[in-house]
Specification:
cytoplasm, NAD, EC 2.3.1.286, histone deacetylase activity, NAD-dependent, about 230 residues, SIR2/SIRT2 'Small Domain', 2 domains, alpha/beta, binds ligand BJW, six-stranded parallel β-sheet, globular, Rossmann fold
């Protein structure tokens, strides 16, 4: 007999924000058709050509502020507000659409566009403007040390202890709008399964790890997520 569902972990990826007009990474027409990932999303790229990297993130930081949450973000925020058990939304997205929809129990494992990280004093500050003009850190005043607060390839994603703790307690793991191409997030389904959770994938197409899920539903997040939540 399946165990009752009390604790839920939901992993989201770029597909959940696609219908808000934010490009995904690996789909045709996605962001990285125009930029080689090694040129912009690694610490080595930032050392090699900081202007290219800062300009790339300045452009996207400006763009996300013109976007709005969609029906999938709204449904997940509703679930967060109403679910009486434990619930954690782990997003790989660096936009702020989950929180703008009202989600509270949320971890940004790959960082946040609207934060700047000072590598001189290790302080994170809210940031809506540009970084290309080398502004001073609001905390320590040092100039030239702010970088986007984004987890690049080869860097450690954030709050992994909390995430694995939640995965190990989960009765249900749901993955929404992610291709399953990037680790460690791509391994969460196996971690949750190993703890006995039921697993459900909601994605436009089968992801690279689809076969690990008990059930996989295909379609747009704005249709699949509200249908699942309600
Ligand atoms: C829709 C839809 C709609 C579209 N509705 N769906 C070899 C093997 C294994 C691992 C490695 C390896 N070599 C290197 C690694 C590690 C590396 C990695 O995974 N590399 C892979 C390329 C193999 N990972 C790392 O380096 C990570 N750090 C790390 O591993 O540290 C060590 C560690 C180990 C163990 C535990 C803990 C730590 C760091 C990864 C950082 C990822 N950063 C990025 C870039 C951020 C900067 C930026 O934004 O510019 O984060 S990569 C990029 O991919 C971004 C995303 O968050 C991430 C995931 O992408 P996502 O969200 O899945 O998007 P897409 O585009 O791939 O997919 C969208 C999906 O939506 C598609 O399936 C569509 O069909 C669907 N869709 N419209 C529903 N309307």
């Amino acid at each position: 007999m399946p165990r009752p569902i009390k604790n839920i972990v939901i992993l989201t990826g770029a597909g959940v924000s696609a219908e808000s007009g934010i490009d995904t990474f690996r789909d045709a027409g996605g962001l990285w058709e125009q930029h080689r990932v090694e040129d912009v999303a690694t610490p080595e790229a930032f050392v090699r050509d900081p202007d290219l990297v800062l300009r790339f993130y300045d452009m996207r930081r400006e763009a996300i502020q013109t976007k709005a949450p969609n029906a999938a973000h709204d449904a997940l925020a509703r679930l967060d507000a109403e679910w009486p058990g434990e619930l954690l939304i782990v997003t790989q997205n660096i936009d702020d659409l989950h929180e703008r929809a009202g989600a509270k129990r949320l971890i940004h494992m790959h960082g946040e566009h609207l934060n700047a990280w000072c590598t001189a004093c290790d302080t994170r500050s809210q940031w809506t403007g540009s970084l290309i003009d080398r502004p001073a850190c609001p905390a320590c005043g040092m100039v030239g040390y702010l970088r986007p607060d984004i987890v690049w390839f080869g860097e450690m994603p954030y709050q992994m202890d909390e995430i694995y703790h939640a995965l190990n307690r989960a009765d249900l793991f749901v993955s929404v709008g992610t291709s399953g191409a990037v680790y460690p997030a791509a391994g969460f389904v196996r971690e949750a399964r190993a703890s006995g959770a039921r697993t459900l994938e909601l994605n436009m197409e089968p992801s690279q790890g689809s076969h690990w899920f008990d059930e996989a539903r295909q379609g747009p997040a704005t249709r699949l997520v509200p249908a699942w939540v309600d």
